[in-house]
Design brief:
There is one protein chain. By secondary structure, the chain is α+β, with helices and mostly antiparallel strands. It has four domains: 268 residues, Glycoside hydrolase 38, N terminal domain (7-stranded beta/alpha barrel), CATH 3.20.110; 79 residues, Substrate Binding Domain Of Dnak, Chain:A, Domain 2; 263 residues, Beta-galactosidase, Chain A, domain 5; 58 residues, no CATH class. Helix content is 22%, strand content 31%. The strands form eleven sheets. It has a nine-stranded antiparallel β-sheet with strand order 25-26-27-28-37-34-33-30-31, with no helix packed on it. A six-stranded antiparallel β-sheet has the order 24-23-29-36-35-32, with no helix packed on it. Helix 1 crosses helix 2. The longest helix has 32 residues.
Length: 856
């Protein structure tokens, strides 16, 4: 007889069509009731959704419950963790997923033992490298719902392997979702029509004797008198039901020797919707999230390492505070954008706060290092947050009285500039009293510098005032370097790389969006518009050239909403392209001023490569995807060939590879030889029924009985939006070299001046006035220099040892990488993400990671 494990749980959206504050309010009664029920019935347990943040929120409003919670956790009745929030697992970086698990586990330990299962019951699909992430967190099992195609696997319980085949978890799918056994009732109607039928459905494919039935749902109370109900159900049903928990069930399944194996991602909407096109919904959330993500990983964390190394005392809790703002905003509903407008504003405010904290960390380290080394007014302090020495081009921001500042012994050219006019009657205070003076004008210049920098450290350079008088060289609609040329002819753009010409290579497309905040969906019988550029400006400098294409276009106000029939709006847009000498990529910025509704805008790159597969970056690796749409009769939604990417997507044949790299855009589609990158998709509905890409009911609760349709005017994203990306040309795809190029795509690097022209240029400068810092004459610092092929995922202060740093290296290649211990100064040990020591060698398996704890 089949043995059925029933798990009592609640799924807890922190925010959705209700706010995080609403959620906390609801937890007051529901969690309190659960605690009382568990205390009254010691033989039962309750899983608190796999995320610790909701318990932290509850304890803030009910601090008197802390000891009672700890006792229930110790007894194994209240099951908590391991995540901080229930994260999105397709549209955020692998580092963010690791931090979610790290902070979730560290916070869970405050209460006691945590769930050692990567439990994600409602996340909208999963990247193919989740086994790497889970193993790095010390987790070796996984329970989930969405994205599975059971026909590909041959069962609902299986071994899920990473792309490199060296990381593995025991995976348990809930094919009918986390609410399969919700509203558990001990009567014939419930058991015969719902419970037994669910098991019948599962055992059509799953051949094992043990079956999991989760009993719970969204914000649902603990099931009262659980033991008595299960006892009665066993008298009614045809299966053997028993109370269990997720850990006990996966431990049992992991002992089976007949589990099938699977390698790949879970984005197939066979049994449940994965909202494949949610990667373009509410792009404002995604852009701010990725901005904060990049500041934290690429700047704030390594700057804190540099700061700590020279004795600057900044609390790591500030870093954690910023991370938590991000992780709360990367919960699956929040990151997907499937929320109401008030919630969207909450998310954007949280992300703004997180960005401010991260920028404050960078600003403060810059400021205090400058004061520590007595940086002069005519100097600039330039940091390198990478663990490799740098030689090449970087952009710095300088405030000077002259309009053409130079960095001594470095080739320097102004890319862009703003002049701030003089001010009259400005108050100056000194020891003699108050004075009113005329404050001089000054220039804020973004300069391109050919520079050499030490690894993970800083160097001081002299700034030379210089007045610019030479006229810019201009050309008639063309720019080039030694590898690439760009020509603008009659509104079209031709690209050439080493003699290979791509005609009409850059496209802008606008189509109607009949979708909602969950998904883009095309409008039946709608019109498509190709937006052309009608003006071109060029600048030719010694080390770079720039082309600025502009256009405007009259579009329907909305093709979706009939009340706007006949109305139009004019959208304007600009594409700025930058070519550096010796560089094999075009750096682009696309600005779009949105004045119309319910549409999708994409930038297309015609590659000339009519290949059948594309290569996209995923956490700690790359995945090849076939550009086809699978048969999908009776699937929950149409499995369109629109996909997320981490940082890059490439098309390649035996002679040429064309790659799009972006820290902003995260969705693409291949159409023959064109790569389409989604700029935005706008909508005015939280959830709509009967979409082309998603037939049937509306997603969310909007078409449930007693619910209402919810308007989301903020989802129209009216106003200006800017996104940056690069197009890179190579002769082949090498994963390690490609990841190096991705890591080097950002030209910016932290830099600082001790200047009095604008004390608000950096937010905290005017408040850091007389800090107590020990002086130093170290004008150039290098903490750790690694070989260029040692790819760094992150470097940050240890969470458990104030005298150590953690450096996480990734191997995106297809062969094992052996590390040289001599490359690392100080004592070194292999740990995992939660800093447990690992008995392993200094090697990184294919498409995997290694975390190293280094003490100096």
């Amino acid at each position: 007889m089949k043995k059925i494990s029933i798990v009592n749980h609640t799924h807890w959206d922190r925010e959705w069509y209700f706010s995080a504050e609403d959620s906390i309010f609801l937890s007051d009664k529901l969690f309190t009731d659960a605690i009382v029920e568990l205390e009254n019935y010691p033989g039962t347990s309750f899983t608190l959704d796999g995320q610790i943040s909701i318990l932290d929120d509850y304890i803030q409003i009910r601090p008197e419950m802390l000891d009672r919670v700890k006792k229930l956790v110790a007894k194994g009745q209240l099951i908590i963790g391991p995540w901080y929030t229930q994260p999105d697992a397709l549209h955020i970086k692998g580092e963010s997923l690791i931090r979610n698990g790290m902070l979730g586990i560290f916070d869970s330990k405050k209460y006691g033992e945590y769930l050692h299962v990567g439990y994600l019951p409602d996340t909208f699909g999963f990247n193919s490298q989740m086994p790497v992430i889970l193993n790095e967190l010390g987790l070796h099992s996984f329970i989930f719902w969405r994205g599975i195609n059971p026909q590909k696997i041959g069962g609902y319980y299986f071994n899920w392997q990473s792309l490199g085949k060296n990381n593995q978890v025991t995976a348990v799918n809930m094919p009918q979702g986390y609410g399969t056994g919700m509203l558990l009732a001990d009567n014939h109607d419930y058991v015969d029509k719902r419970l037994d039928n669910a098991i019948d459905f599962i055992q059509k494919i799953e051949k094992g004797q043990d079956i999991l039935i989760p009993s719970g749902n969204d914000q649902l109370d603990i099931i009262k008198d659980f033991q008595k109900k299960i006892s009665n159900i066993n008298k009614i049903g045809k299966y053997d039901y028993k109370i269990s928990d997720y850990q006990t069930f996966v431990d049992k399944i992991s002992k089976r020797d007949d589990l099938p194996s699977y390698i790949g991602e879970f984005i197939d909407p066979v049994l449940a919707r994965v909202h494949r096109t949610s990667s373009s919904s509410r792009m404002n959330i995604k852009l701010e999230s990725r901005k904060l993500e990049n500041i934290l990983i690429k700047k704030a964390e390594p700057m804190l390492v540099i700061g700590h190394s020279v004795g600057i005392d900044i609390s790591q809790q500030l870093l954690i505070r910023s991370w938590k703002k991000l992780l709360e905003s990367q919960a699956h509903d929040s990151m997907a954008g499937s929320v109401t407008d008030p919630v969207e504003r909450d998310i954007m405010h949280r992300l703004t706060e997180g960005i401010q904290i991260a920028e404050d960390i960078v600003n403060t380290v810059e400021n205090l290092v400058a004061k520590k080394i007595n940086l002069a007014k005519d100097e600039v302090l330039v940091f390198n947050t990478e663990v490799h020495r740098f030689k090449g081009y970087k952009t710095l921001e300088l405030l000077t009285k002259s309009n053409d500042p130079k960095i001594d012994d470095c080739v320097t050219e102004v890319i862009s500039q703003k002049y701030v006019s003089p001010r009259e009657n400005v108050l100056m205070q000194d020891e003699t009293g108050d004075h009113y003076i005329k404050e001089p004008g000054y220039y804020i210049s973004k300069v391109l510098v050919k520079i050499e920098l030490p690894a993970l450290g800083y160097k001081v350079f002299k700034v030379i005032d210089h007045e610019y008088s030479e006229e810019l060289t201009k050309s008639e609609g063309s720019i080039s370097n030694d590898l690439i040329s760009i020509k603008y002819v009659d509104g079209k753009i031709d690209l050439s790389y080493q003699g290979q010409i791509l005609r009409d290579a850059l496209l802008v497309e606008d189509v109607a969006n009949d979708g909602d905040t969950y998904d883009f969906s095309p409008l039946r019988d709608s019109q498509k518009f190709m937006l052309s550029f009608n003006s071109c400006e060029t600048e030719i400098h010694h080390n770079f050239s720039k082309m600025i294409l502009s256009g405007d276009y009259k579009l329907p106000k909305s093709q979706v909403e009939t009340k706007y029939q006949g109305q139009t709006g004019i959208v304007s847009y600009k594409l700025t392209m930058l070519l550096l000498q010796g560089d094999n990529r075009i750096r682009m910025k696309f600005d779009f001023d949105n004045t119309v509704l319910d549409h999708r805008v994409r930038v297309g790159l015609r590659t000339g490569l009519a290949v059948k597969t594309n290569i996209a970056s995923v956490p700690f690796g790359f995945i090849k995807r076939d550009n086809k749409i699978e048969p999908h009769e009776d699937w929950a939604e149409v499995p369109v060939n629109i996909y997320p990417f981490d940082n890059s997507v490439s098309l390649a044949d035996e002679n040429l590879a064309v790659t799009a790299i972006s820290k902003d855009i995260s969705e693409y589609q291949q159409a023959d030889d064109i790569l389409w990158l989604t700029v935005l998709a706008t909508t005015n509905e939280l959830g709509k029924p009967n979409l082309v890409y998603r037939p049937g009911r509306a997603s969310g609760d909007t078409t449930k009985q007693g619910h209402v349709m919810i308007q989301t005017p903020d989802g129209e994203l009216l106003g200006k939006i800017s996104e940056e990306f690069s197009i890179m040309f190579t002769n082949k795809i090498d994963y390690v070299e490609l990841q190096q190029s991705i890591n080097n795509d950002d030209l910016s690097t932290p830099n600082y001046q001790e200047q009095e022209l604008n004390l608000f240029h950096n937010r905290l400068d005017n408040k850091i006035q007389f800090p107590n810092v020990e002086k130093s004459n170290v004008r150039e610092l290098e903490l750790l220099n690694l070989p260029g092929n040692y790819l760094v995922s992150s470097v940050y202060p240890s969470y458990t040892d104030q005298s150590a740093i953690i450096i996480r290296l990734e191997n995106v290649g297809e062969t094992t990488m052996i590390l040289d211990r001599k490359q690392f100064d100080g004592s070194i040990e292999v740990v995992n993400a939660i800093e447990d020591k690992q008995n392993s060698d200094l090697k990184i398996l294919p498409m995997s990671v290694i975390s190293l704890k280094i003490k100096y």
